[in-house]
Amino acid sequence: MRKILFMLSIIIVFLSCKEEKNVVKTKEIQRGYITDKAMVVSARQEASKIGADIMAKGGNAFDAMMATEMALAVSYPYAGNLGGGGFLVYRLADGQVGALDYREKAPLAASKDMYLDEDGNVIPNKSTVGPLAIGVPGTVAGIFEAQKRFGKLDVKTILQPVIDLANNGFIVTKNQENRFKNYDSLFTAVNGKKILFNQDLKQNDRILNFALAETLTRIANNGRDEFYKGETAKKLVQFLQEKGSIITLEDLEKYEAKWRKPIQFQYDDLTITSMSPPSSGGVCLNQIMTMVEDFDLKSYGHNSLKAIQVLVEAEKRAYADRSYYLGDPDFVDIPLETLTSSVYLNERMTDFTFKAPTPVDSISHGNIIGYESDETTHYSIVDQFGNAIAVTTTLNGGYGSKVYADDLGFFLNNEMDDFSSKPGEPNYYGLIGAEANSIAPEKRMLSSMTPTIVEKEGELLMTVGTPGGSTIITSVLQTILNVHEFEMGMQEAVNAPRFHNQWLPDEIRIEPNAFDKNIIKQLIAKGYKINESRSPIIGIVDGILVTDDGKLEGGADKRGDDAAVGF
Ligand code: DON
């Protein structure tokens, strides 16, 4: 009997082992904040809440866009703005997609060599700090254009909570306290006096911005033209010219946001819609994803040696193309069809091998891209009607040019630095471009912003984006792959450690202390250079995912003060 029992137990153990082998273990997905109908994820709790409240009042994603964007201008002056620009990518409930370009433009008086001295050398800081760094702002035109076409509520209803926020104030976070401190002396140097944001502000202090409340009230009353032709325009131009800017009233009057055809491509069963030029985001994302599509990333594993190698090599090739071919499509012919064709992209990867890095100088004839700054902001919105938007907006550097129009209550951008001041030579952020991105009057400077919407089998899956200069594209890429290939939830995908390669400099930048030491060692052994110390974070991704049961999951990046709010 004992023998029989023993044999039986062996058989049971054997069977259970066998069964375990056949079990397909699905990874347990960790979820973030969940709502049923609508959500905003942005860089500030206040802005997400104001956007979500607008939808609760019956507004849609485009109404919420106007509210969120302006609330960020109040509570997140580091990147939220009236004096900057941005890009919107949308997908309507019926599946129609589109994109709006409200990128800044070079002023009419701008010229190709405006940042060069007599010997043709780039004058340090001229394109980054102070009045000459400023491009013609597009944000107010952008939010009005989108809201006019698709919104449901009236502008006064949308802007009133934002005006209240400016009047009643917002609370300084620890991150903000640190940033205000870091920029203190520069604010004074550029503006010739203390401004609202360098008054020794501490965490939990409240900042009231009455000047901005007044500007927003005039805009709410008089509409878009208030900013481009009205009293605000006149005040702004007078202020800018006193400061030494070349921007005129004509520049403001001529500014227009432009509807663009977004970049759209397939990856497995996903349809991805992202920003077209003058952003490089969609093109590069399309290139990288097409180059890696035939590799079995899922079986390699998240942040595994092979997955990192494949992605890095595809990134190198895409960024090499970016620097040479991309610029404002209204000024340069971009061979978009070729750049995004699978024949071309598969050809680009034929010299890839897992044995060693492809040498950077064998990849293209090229021009080099260095690092960009880390001070843009992205927000994602899904409304209760099924519309989804992804919006990335920026002043470029933190607080833009640092020029602060204190009568109007906002900073002006330093977006002119996204042009290539001298083709072939790095700008302040190390960015080198080619002729395609040289300065010309009314031209839009090349961007990396990548607001992106993902569909799966014809249904909305995700809206996503991030700040981070040139790391924007690779952060968006990794977040999509984390969900699609590595079965993560939205918050989990946002939290996961990120890496970045942009062809030149010839290195893989990784978030510190976040990667397996063994994998780093193996990459180094293969010949890759690793930079773990450039900055503590790569990107601040905000996104919304539609879960299998039709709910919305927010991914609000805790690398910042970001927050998801919805209902
Ligand atoms: O448009 C661009 O690509 C840059 N001006 C973005 C700058 C940026 O992302 C800075 N912040 N994170």
TrEMBL record:
Annotated catalysed reactions:
an S-substituted glutathione + H2O = an S-substituted L-cysteinylglycine + L-glutamate; an N-terminal (5-L-glutamyl)-[peptide] + an alpha-amino acid = 5-L-glutamyl amino acid + an N-terminal L-alpha-aminoacyl-[peptide]; glutathione + H2O = L-cysteinylglycine + L-glutamate
Q: In which pathway does it act?
A: Sulfur metabolism; glutathione metabolism
The annotated subunit structure for this chain is:
This enzyme consists of two polypeptide chains, which are synthesized in precursor form from a single polypeptide.
Task: Write out the PTM section of this UniProt entry.
Answer: Cleaved by autocatalysis into a large and a small subunit.
The protein, known as: Glutathione hydrolase proenzyme
Any one GO molecular-function label of the UniProt entry:
leukotriene C4 gamma-glutamyl transferase activity
Q: What is its EC number?
A: 2.3.2.2, 3.4.19.13
- Provide the family line: Belongs to the gamma-glutamyltransferase family.
Q: Which gene encodes it?
A: ggt
Q: Which UniProt keywords apply?
A: Acyltransferase, Glutathione biosynthesis, Hydrolase, Transferase, Zymogen
What is the species listed in this Swiss-Prot or TrEMBL entry? Answer: Winogradskyella litorisediminis
